[in-house]
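Design job #97: recover the sequence.
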């Protein structure tokens, strides 16, 4: 399959699509790690209606992968087959305060901007988003949280488009939220969400956000090429402590390194490949199990394929 094949498969409907269609688009330009191969086709819809038109026209056997701002994402070196959908700020980047102390937002809005919009509107309860790297779409999918708050605590409902181009509205309870996980159908692409806030003083909310910013900058490599927290915290523990106890602080493979500042962050030191980063992550998982008998699960989402001849053995307890 190629980008040209996908464009041809859209047929006459292609003339009705208003968004940007880019065949063979390198995803390393988008992902925060700055690694990864191309998408056969990158589609950036103009708005929800445009997204629905595209998905309805696309043959059902063509794979579709939505991505957000490129954080919490490791794109493999062989690229991503099929279509990658990325929502743009122009079509999905508005936030509007509504009655009942609610905030309606597009899913391309960065988490930090949602926190700022809530502060500007005097809405407390959403400041924790200041500490989450990424966008609202990803936050919905993985129940993103930080500093004592989680998406499940504040979400009222969300709009989404399915693989056939049909629009759905999901209530909070429809997500089946758990720690860094949701049960929402995998084919849904979220377009908008409504969050519940509480009356608050804007100055106090901004002060709380400033403390979160100060804490992140002091303890996390926020100015490095990274994807955010690499592994989920296991029940009753902290991933970074287990990584540190396994002697992995500063560990390197190729151009990839475990952060010296925060052991639950992997870094591209400048010339890493996606294979370097994933090999490093699997090495860390194996060492943690060997030293602490705890299995770490990836929090970063790994997508795509490896080039011919490249094999990254996934760590398993049986192989440890």
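Job complete. Output follows.
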């Amino acid at each position: 399959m190629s980008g040209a094949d996908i464009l041809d498969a859209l047929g006459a409907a292609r003339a009705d699509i208003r968004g940007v269609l880019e065949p063979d688009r390198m995803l390393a330009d988008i992902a925060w790690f700055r690694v990864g191969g191309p998408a056969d086709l990158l589609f950036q819809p103009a708005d929800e209606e445009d997204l629905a038109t595209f998905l309805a026209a696309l043959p059902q056997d063509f794979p579709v992968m939505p991505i957000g701002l490129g954080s919490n994402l490791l794109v493999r070196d062989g690229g991503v087959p099929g279509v990658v959908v990325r929502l743009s700020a122009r079509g999905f980047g508005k936030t509007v305060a509504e009655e009942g102390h609610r905030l309606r937002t597009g899913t391309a809005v960065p988490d930090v901007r949602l926190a700022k919009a809530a502060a500007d509107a005097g809405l407390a309860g959403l400041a924790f988003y200041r500490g989450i790297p990424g966008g609202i779409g990803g936050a919905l999918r993985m129940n993103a949280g930080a500093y004592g708050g989680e998406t499940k605590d504040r979400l009222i409902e969300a709009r989404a488009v399915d693989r056939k181009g049909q629009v759905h509205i999901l209530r909070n309870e429809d997500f089946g939220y758990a720690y860094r996980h949701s049960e929402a159908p995998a084919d849904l692409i979220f377009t908008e969400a409504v969050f519940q806030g509480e009356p608050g003083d804007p100055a106090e909310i901004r002060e709380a956000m400033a403390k979160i910013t100060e804490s992140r900058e002091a303890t996390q490599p926020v100015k490095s090429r990274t994807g955010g927290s690499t592994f989920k915290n296991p029940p009753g523990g902290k991933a970074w402590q287990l990584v540190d106890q396994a002697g992995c602080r500063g560990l390197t493979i190729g151009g990839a390194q475990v952060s010296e500042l925060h052991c639950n962050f992997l870094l591209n030191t400048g010339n890493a490949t996606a294979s370097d980063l994933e090999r490093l992550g699997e090495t860390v998982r194996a060492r943690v199990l060997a030293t602490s008998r705890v299995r770490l699960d990836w929090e970063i989402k790994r997508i795509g394929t490896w080039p011919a001849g490249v094999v990254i053995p996934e760590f398993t307890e049986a192989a440890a």
